[in-house]
Amino acid sequence: MIVRLMLMLCCLSGSVYADSDIRQEQNARIWLDKMSHAFNKRNYRGVLIYGDPNVWNTLSIKHSVIDGIEYEKLEHLTGLPRKIIRRDHDITCIHPGDHVVRTDPNITNPLTQSLVLSSSELTNLYDLQVGGHERIADRLAQRINVIPKDKYRYGYRLWVDMQSGLLLRSDLMSESAEVLERFQFAQVEIDADIPISEFDDTETGHPIEAHGFTSEEMVQPALWELEWIPRGFVLTTRYVQEQAAQHHQTMVMYTDGLAAFTLFVDNVADGRMPDMNKRWGATAAVVRHMKFNDNGYRITVVGEVPMATVQKIALSARPMLAVSPTGLINELE
Q: What are phi and psi of 30, to 5 degrees?
């Protein structure tokens, strides 16, 4: 009788813990959904500090939605003086010199750079937990712990404003609970009335180009594929640019909804150049050189994932298709 009672209590205890985990995940998902909407829908301005344990930067940020159009202005307060102004999808960079900045036009705000939150399978890849309440930038915030379910990605600690849902702080965590990268508001005003004049500037700026690829150049077929990627990562962007005869440059981006990595492949004259592994803060990069059909290629993988993940991805890169002189697509040997 006692043994049976103990078994019943164990089963009940397991059921209670399971229900608690489900509620934790559901509550955390609600907070994350609220946070993702706050980025684009809320008006806010403030001072943002971001960086890794070695390098820190300060940024002034303004974001407003006026007549259904998003406006954003970022001004770097440390390092090279520069401003980035976004009006819907049009981005202008104001900085010293005449060179044109090349970047991803969909990523200007460093808070949104680390958190995409687009994957419906996020809870299959991460455990989501609701933590305690803390004070960030003089506002009460809810902490959310995002814990990876495998060794191929990092975890996050997020502090979400309890009133508006705006992300006030984000810590990217290593496997040993080390903070690799942090974004945090030092000062913020939410739902402020920010007029359109705040996003005008009399200085001459340069339009930001998206990685130097035009829509005409993106019609080329993909020439490279990855034989291995971590579970849950999906292709989001693929550019193939033909720079010259038999010379292509490929860029392929993947994300799991939080983490992201990019594959670059370039033709190089000498395929015997040394390989490279480098990490700075949360970002890991691997460069390796390969030779196919007597042609040399430089393969680069960059992402905010562990170094072992980047190395394994780079080793799995293989040529997929090639365009023959007749215009037919053939498999490379």
A: -60, -45
DSSP class per residue in 282-297: TEEEEEEEEEETTEEE
C-alpha–C-alpha distance, residues 239 and 246, integer Å: 16
CB 90 within 8 A of CB 216: no
Q: What is the pTM assigned to this prediction? A: 0.77
Rounded to an integer, what distance in angstroms lies between the CA atom of residue 190 and that of residue 305?
32
What pLDDT is attached to residue 310? 96
Question: What DSSP character marks residue 143?
Answer: E
Calpha distance 200→187 (Å, rounded): 23
Residues 259 and 246 in one domain: yes
My answer on whether 46 and 192 are in the same domain is: yes
- Kindly report, residue by residue over 57-111, the tens digit of the pLDDT: 999 999 999 999 999 999 999 988 888 888 887 888 876 654 444 444 344 455 5
pLDDT given for residue 170 in this prediction:
94
User: What residues does 160 pair with on adjacent strands?
Assistant: 142, 167
Domain count, the chain: 2
Q: Of the candidates 229, 246, 243, which has an alpha carbon nearest to the alpha carbon of residue 296?
A: 246
Compare 200 and 314 and report the one with higher pLDDT: 314
Nearest Cα to Cα of residue 316 among 224, 219, 181, 202: 224
CA nearest 106: which of 90, 83, 123, 122? 90
Closest CA to 292 of 316, 318, 310, 312: 318
Query: Dihedrals φ, ψ of 262, to 5°?
Result: -130, 135
Give 138-177 pLDDT, tens digit per residue: 999 999 999 999 999 999 999 999 999 999 999 999 988 8
Q: Which of 150, 178, 209 is the last residue of a domain?
A: 209
